[in-house]
Structures are given as structure tokens and as C-alpha cells.
Amino acid sequence: MRATSNRKLAEALGVSETAVRKALAAGRISRDPAGGFDVAKVKRQWAGNTDAAQQRPTAKANPNLRPVPAAALASVRETHRESGDAGGAEPLAGGGPSFLQARTANEVLKAQERRLRLQRLKGELIDRARATAQVFTLARQERDAWVQWPARVAADLAAELGLETHTVQTALEAAVKAQLAEVAELKPRFD
């Protein structure tokens, strides 16, 4: 098969006309002596002289491409949303993000991870499980101090009020238990 123009060759190869012009200028493909293109020969030249890593994959160019998992696409969209970016260019026709959008999302995620790691190293961030355990320990110490308080102050308070020590201690214990039960319903939130 022969192609007589850059446009016809681009259609036969499944690439843009600009890519054909660039390949001609770089010497990766060549014309026939008559000025046209032998498509089979050009395909061999294209395959042998073109870096595949520099090519944008398309479904037409590579039917063996696997679809991107929906979770990965959702992650890319979420990253763009969190960074305040609309995602750059419009999504591809298949509904997924472009390579540029995915790469941008990856760079944003890496920057966020580095920022968090730096904040952790500076001591600005703490481990959630450790903070929860610390709050629990402090709350238990506070509760234990309140439970022991009526026994410590009952005798002095009873003498000052002229009442029986046991009566004052029982009343204080009931009041403290009611207060602790009310406070126990409060749950720490780490949002």
C-alpha cells in the first residue's frame, strides 16, 4: 500500500499528521524516491526508530491495554478535588482521566505525603491511636481521683458541718458518681 501525503500516511499509521512531520524531520522515517510512502516500509521504520515510552497509548494503537480500575480513577478525581484543581483538561472520551491528569494527581499526593511526613518529624502531628490512648489514660486518672475524693474530704467536711462522716461521704459519693456518669457519655472526637 502506498500513501501519497503526510495526512494519508498519518491515517494509515494511526498517528497525527504532526507526528509524521516530526518523524520525517528527525529522519526516523523516509519517503520513496518518487516522493510518496511505502506504508509497510514506514511502519517498520516507525517501529524501529521510535521510542515507545514517548508515545501516547491509544486503544487503536494498542488493543492490549488493560482498563484502569474504577478505584484508581476515583482516587485521581478525589485528589484533584482536594487540591482545588478541576483536573486540568477535560477527561478522555472513555470517561477516565488523561495521563497528564493522573500524573498531576500523583504529584499532588506525593507533595501531601511529604508535607505530612515533615509535620510529623517537626512534632506538629501526632499518631491518632496514641492520642486516643493518652486521652483514655488521662480520663481514667481523672475519674479515679474523683472516686477517691469523697473519702478524703468527708471527715473534714462532716466536722465543719457538724454531721456524721458516713452520711457526708455517702452523699458525696452519690453526687460524684452521678457527675461521672454524665461525663462518661462525652466521647472525644478527632476530626
Q: What does this molecule look like?
A:
By secondary structure, the protein is mostly helical. The protein folds into three domains: about 1-55, no CATH class; about 70-120, no CATH class; about 130-185. Helix content is about 65%, strand content about 0%. It has seven helices and two strands; from the N terminus they run βααβααααα. It has helices spanning about 5-15, 15-25, 40-50, 70-80, 100-120, 130-160, 165-185; strands at about 1-5, 35-40. The protein has a two-stranded antiparallel ribbon. α4 (about 70-80) packs across α5.
Mean pLDDT over the residues: 81
Oligomeric state of the chains in view: single chain
Which regions contain 5 or more consecutive residues with pLDDT less than 50?
A: none
The first-to-last residue Cα distance is: 66 Å
Strand order of the largest sheet: 1-2
Major β-sheet annotation = 2 strands, antiparallel
Task: Kindly state the percentage of residues in helix.
Answer: 55-70%
Radius of gyration: 37 Å
* Strand residues, percent: under 5%
Inertia-based shape: rod-shaped
SS content category: mainly alpha
The number of distinct β-strands equals: 2
Question: Could you spell the SSE succession in H and E letters?
Answer: EHHEHHHHH
Q: Estimate nothing, just give the exact number of structural domains.
A: 3
The number of helical segments is: 7
